[in-house]
Amino acid sequence: MILLHLNLFPFSAPSPSSSSSSSLSNPSNAPRFRITKIPSFKPLLALPSTHHFSSEPGLNFRRKLLYLENDLGISPSFALTQNPNLRSFPLTSIVSITFFLHQHFGITHLHDAGRILSMHPILLTCTPESDLLPVACFLSNVVGISRLDDLRKAVVRCPRILVTDVDSQLKPTLYFLRRIGFIGAHEINTQTSLLLVSSVETTLIPKLDYFQSLGFSYKEAVKLVLRSPRLFTHSIENNFKPKVEFLVREMGRDVRDIEDFPQYFSFSLEKKIKPRHQALVEHGLNMTLSEMLKISDGEFNDRLRKMRFGFI
After folding, report:
1. Sorting pLDDT into bands at 50, 70 and 90, what band is 29?
2. Where are the transmembrane segments (predicted)?
3. How many structural domains are present in the chain?
4. CA–CA separation, 137 vs 134, rounded Å?
5. Does the residue 36 lie in any domain?
6. CA triple 273-274-275, angle to 5 deg
7. Ramachandran region, residue 144 (left: φ > 0; alpha: ψ -120 to 50; beta: rest)
């Protein structure tokens, strides 16, 4: 695909006395353009391959579909199904949204912009100033994620944050997290900003309640999530309960072992926890949870051999 790229680097503008006609007759005085063959990751600061707009509605609609599919990598049929308003939304407005994502969130590649917009097609017809700018201001001024590259990381990691209301969701969750200890060394950053889209009442508090049901105090439960914030993203039914049951019943460990290694819940029960526990049982060996899970398969097998032959 060939795109026409604007040369955004400074160029010498014609002097005030120069006329527009002289600029056209003398190419050295005109803004410079360059034709570039696009690699797999396409710069966002480019006009779409459909940059010639027409007064014919049918032609513009086809060009809009081509822009979605070829430039952003979004299935037009999927986008139109998810967001019917897209049918009448002008291509120029869609392009302006991608530029807004670049300017305010540091999304510099169409690949990333397309991924975000395909996950939330409602954004394809949003009004950036009223829908996206409040999120950018909140992340930058309230949360403290102010560097453009950090904003990019936060949004790429959790695009849902762009479609989450600031006042009813993001602010209350931030204040709750700060209240329980996500400040200072634990302050919300690009790694943990995805927690902001979680409901305090239906997601965060129930996780703390679950750990208290295991015998941990409220303070101890909070300490667990501060050490491993990803705990707030796991399912109680599909993650916590089966792993706690395996830890206690099959492995014969104390539930308090979680206190030393809360990252236990981040590992796959079927692909890592069970196989490694079985390997230890077969050889009559024992490791702490962190020793058993944190290392790679090769390191685990090497450690297993050394333990078997008494080198450890």
Report:
1. very low
2. none
3. 1
4. 5
5. no
6. 100
7. left
Asked whether residue 52 carries a pLDDT value surpassing 60, the answer given is: no
305 assigned to some structural domain: yes
Helix (H, G, I), strand (E, B) or coil at 2: strand
The separation between the first and the last C-alpha atoms of the chain, rounded to the nearest angstrom, is 58
Decide if 30 is inside a domain: no
Which of the 8 DSSP states describes residue 29?
G
Do 132 and 125 touch, CB atoms closer than 8 A? no
Asked whether residue 25 is domain-assigned, the answer is no
Per-position DSSP letters for 70-98, written without gaps between them: IIS---HHHHHHH-GGGGGS-HHHHHHHH
pLDDT at 312 over 80: no
173 contact partners, CB below 8 Å, separation of at least 6: 195, 196, 197, 198, 199, 200, 204
Helices and strands in the chain, H and E counts? 16, 2
82-128 residue pLDDT tens: 999 999 999 999 999 999 999 999 999 999 999 999 999 999 999 99
**Residue among 218, 226, 234, 166 at smallest CA distance from 196:** 166
* Amino acid code (one letter) for 136: A
Q: State the Cα–Cα distance between residues 58 and 252, nearest whole angstrom.
A: 68
Query: Which SS3 state, helix, strand or coil, does residue 3 take?
Result: strand
Number of Cβ atoms within 10 Å of the Cβ of 54: 11
pLDDT digits (tens, 9 = 90+) for 133-148: 999 999 999 999 999 9
Domain that holds residue 238: 229-311
Going by C-alpha positions, the residue among 155, 72, 167 that lies closest to residue 121 is: 72
For 36, which DSSP code? Answer: E
| Average pLDDT of span 186-206 | 98
